[in-house]
Amino acid sequence: MWSEPLxxxxxxxxxxxxxRSLLRSNRKVPSASQRPPQRSSSPSSEGFSGTRRSVDMxxxxxxxxxxxGTFGRMLRxxxxxxxxxxxxxxxxxGKVSIYVCGPTVYGPPHLGHGRYAIVYDVLRRYLEWGGFDxxxxxxxxxxxxxIIERANREGRTANEIAQRCEEVWYRAMDxxxxxxxxxxxxxxxxxxxxxxxxxxxxRRGFVYETSDGAYFEAERVEGYGLLAxxxxxxxxxxxxxxxxxxxxxxxxxxxxxxxxxxxxxxESPWGAGRPGWHTECVVMSLGLLGDxxxxxxxxxxxxxxxxxxxxxxxxxxxxxxxxxWIHHGWVMVEDQKMGKSxxxxxxxxxxxxxxxxxxxRLLVLQSHYRAPMEVSRTTTAAAxxxxxxxxxxARRAAGLAGDADAAALEAxxxxxxxxxxxxxxxxxxxxxxxxxNTALDAGDESAAAPLAAAVRxxxxxxxxxxxxxxxxxxxxxxxxxxxxxxxxxxxxxxxxDRIRAQLQxxxxxxxxxxxxxxxxxx
Length: 522
Description:
Number of helices: 17
Oligomer: single chain
Largest sheet: 4 strands, parallel
Radius of gyration: 24 Å
Low-confidence stretches: 1-72, 339-344
Shape: globular
Helix content: 40-55%
Mean pLDDT: 84
């Protein structure tokens, strides 16, 4: 098991860029056809075709199209730059462009990555459910100090570390049913563009060179610190101490790092080296989505300095950057904030080996995306039990047909349009299930049918896959689960672990519950 955490920050080269990027990059970036395939989704159950959309980089006009297929409705989101909930008015009518800061691939994804991937997957699905044409870009940072440090520690190349961890990342994303981005550019494929941007910034007077690299003079950008929501004096006082004492201001940041012996490097006007972290997303987002793209997302911890430094470079180079900045909250693990210093970066793959991945998605939805989210044995068990009720209803209502209840869908849109209030929307979902079950108990299928149809519609918008068939556990698998319970009761942990591995090898996830070993097909 890969034990180090992945850090959020940077998303995989696609057909659009693979030919030119492979010629420029020091490492071969796998094309989409070379990567593990994503599980296909049925349009009838998911509400989308799964086909790629080309990026429209034409006019920069603004416009608005309604959600839920109804023109005139308005999704409102909390914009960090404005500090308030504001209407989403896309650059291009009927289209929304989204850039998500993706993974830095030097270890396995943890629960925080799982949360943000689901949050923005739900945003994407909801917009598409509402009739928008969404272009969704998420990058992969495959040039990074952490990758180099791990490679040196393990005696492998940085390329090997990045490729292996990227495979693990996408396997985890497939398991939690997060759709692949339309484009997933690698940092290593955009080195030339980053050098060009830095050279342009130097010509404009924003760059100075030191003994260890080239730095950006942040205070020359009017309004620097907007995303931090703090005055510049406070930012100077709280700036992280850097190794270089040649910086002109504590808030200045490195654009190009001069290489040390044995490190991966590219030639540049500032010597052999590699770009700083804050530059890659500027060239990739603008290159794929164009000036004034709609939404830039990431964790609240990225707002400053990472996203602010991206914004500063784009403005200094004469570009209009993201129109809206959306940031999600952190994950609490057993009542503690997830953090490296706490050593509680719970591996996402480990969690979904024992918890239904659909239950993890439901748990994410039950917390507002900007609020802290608690992951514990109690919360995951409750989410699993709740999803069991959804599956039971899906089986019971499988034969019901008809149009969705209009009032229910209107209430759903109202909740979701209010800064993605998924907790309220989930509460509505379960209320509809309760009402439909009550109608079925009374033998009133005509009253239950539109409620059931509304539940199915909302599940599509959420990306919740309800199982309308009962996956019966084979007798021999149930016998193994019972045998494992006996081993655990006898404190024969070696046998219990052996049986767990056997069940997993047969394609079943294993979960320890107060009622004993529970198994389900993966």
